[in-house]
Amino acid sequence: MPQTADPIAQGEDVNTWLRGMTESLTPKTCELLLFLIIILILRRLLTHDSSQNNNHEELVKITSSLSYAFTAQLHLSDKHITHLQEELTRAQSRIDKLEVKVQDQLKAPNEREQETMEQVKKLQAALGAAQCDQQQM
């Protein structure tokens, strides 16, 4: 990652690096790689010789690298959360559709039962009328 003095250019570099990390690798691979990067950076920080003259510059590089790694991890987590929210929305939509379908199926037998009862009453009335006609004959 190139070091620049311009914060906007540095932000664009970070975004490019993040896209490269999160879009070209599978989420699990990216997660493992970030974990390894963080371990290496922390190991570098722990083994850093504080007696060196360029102590400040080296610490800036280490913390900058760590910042990139944590930012990438956050970005990956955000993408995962977004994916889970989309799955949840799709699942809720399917549940809603199934609930409507079940309600329609529960409603349908009652409607069919009512239609059958109406037909039975009509047939009974027709039978009663036919019996009356037959008795009058």
Description:
- This is Coiled-coil domain-containing protein 102B-like.
- Keywords: Coiled coil.
- Residues 81-108 form a coiled coil.
- This protein is mainly alpha-helical and 137 residues long.
- It has one domain (7-108).
- 88% of the residues lie in helices and 0% in strands.
- The chain has helices at residues 7-24, 27-46, 55-136.
- The protein is rod-shaped and about 125 Å long.
Order of helices and strands: HHH
Reported for the largest beta sheet, the result is: none
The level of helicity is over 70%
Number of helices: 3
> Low-confidence stretches at least 5 residues in length (pLDDT < 50)?
4-8
The pLDDT mean sits at: 78
Report Rg.
36 Å
Count of separate structural domains: 1
The number of distinct β-strands equals: 0
Query: What is the terminal separation in angstroms?
Result: 108 Å
Q: What portion of the residues fall into strands of 2 or more residues?
A: under 5%
- Oligomeric state, counting identical vs distinct chains: single chain
What's the shape? rod-shaped
State the secondary-structure class: mainly alpha
